[in-house]
Amino acid sequence: MTGPRVSTAGLDAGERRIAARHLLAAPMLTAAQQPAELDLVRRHAAALKSMFASQLGYALIIESRFARLVKAPLPASVPVRPARRVTDDSPFTAGTYVHLALTCAALLAPGVGEQILISALVDQIRADAAQQSITITDGISDRRQLVTALRLLVAWGVVSETDGSLTAWSERPEDEALLSINRPLLIHLLPRPLHQFTAAEHTWSQLQPEPPRRRLRQRLVENPAVFRAELPDDELDVLSRERHELARHLDENFGLVLEVRAEGVLAYDPPGTLTDLDFPGTGSAKQAALLLLDELTMALQPSAESAVLVDGSPLPAALAAWPQVDAVLGELTTRYRAAWKGVYGQSLDALRTDVVDLLVGLRLGRPTADGLAIFPFAARYQPDVRTQAAERSSVTEEIPR
């Protein structure tokens, strides 16, 4: 006698959603670094490949030791997500990007096998650089930039330190280090082979135009805050006619909640985990940005009816003149000097730079020549400030320096 059959459809759908979120948050999953996440992706491989292809136009490559989600280029209006240093989360400089590109090319050079000594890798990098009239020296600056690039590849699971240390080599180049190369993943770092392109800028363009439904989904999954003024007519039409269907797809596939607002549309992530930039969060700059938004939003009341010229285009926003921004940040610095990062107490410019960069990345504000444009989306974070208001002194004591 057999028991009643229990449906697992709901469980499977929930697991697929979790797996899809893992891939969006980390488009490269490896067995060495994310074994549980990769196992979940592999269990739902067919459904995930079909969903990403149909909903977003993304290719999902799944092999025994890794999964790679190959995303499509996004519009120029989307905030830049730079590569960041593993050690301090600071963005890559132009020079570090050069070292990253040269390192990947050197790892793919003919004759390079599953492992390589760092001295041999450096020789190949310098030879490739010389062919492109790029000077790579043996100075400490170039060594540190190379190590920064290699650490990112280590974090991605493309290379691993088998013997020796990258840190030791950066300080003492006479020390050797042996690197192991995940070659199957390495060849999938770029979305398409470079020989398909005739110019560098073509690597960021779509080979085939995407239908408006797919373009709109891409925007919302990768850049949740989107203004109506930025959407072409065909995407606005999809938003108007298929709002409920769009909301259902975003919820079922990725756990995102769609909010259609007067100024635009927001794909909100309630758990707050589907991002490389958590906000609100710990850290002096994030606390300063949250408190600044509270002050400026209360004072200026940005709305869909107000407009500020940003990069030549009018966007729904309220403009806070730079003296007003500096006055608020100065008062906040005085109030929380003992808890916030030491350099912010010494330099208001440093605090303003970090806060503005954070707001740009979050799509909550944009700098202009005359001041800081505060977008209506920022009002969403006022409850966070209200909740913390009675506990601000204890909250700031917990902020790491």
Task: Map the helices and strands.
Elements: H1 9-25, E1 28-30, H2 35-43, H3 45-56, E2 59-62, E3 66-70, H4 94-107, E4 115-117, H5 118-131, H6 140-156, E5 159-163, H7 166-171, E6 178-181, H8 183-186, H9 212-222, E7 225-227, H10 233-241, H11 243-254, E8 257-260, E9 264-268, H12 284-300, E10 307-310, E11 313-316, E12 318-321, H13 322-336, H14 342-346, H15 348-362, E13 365-367, E14 371-374, H16 382-389, H17 392-397
Antiparallel strand pairs: 1-3, 2-3, 4-6, 5-6, 7-9, 8-9, 10-11, 12-14, 13-14
Write a short abstract of this structure.
This protein is an alpha+beta fold and 401 residues long.
Description:
With 401 residues, the protein is of the alpha+beta class. It has four domains: 62 residues, no CATH class; 132 residues, no CATH class; 57 residues, no CATH class; 114 residues. The chain contains 17 helices and 14 strands. The protein has a three-stranded antiparallel sheet. The protein has a three-stranded antiparallel sheet with strand order 4-6-5. It has a three-stranded antiparallel sheet with strand order 7-9-8, with helices on one face. Strand 13 and strand 14 form a beta hairpin. Helix 1 packs across helix 2, helix 9 crosses helix 10 and helix 12 crosses helix 13. The longest helix is centred in the first third of the chain and has 17 residues. The chain is globular, with a radius of gyration of 24 Å. The relative contact order is 0.08. The C terminus is likely disordered.
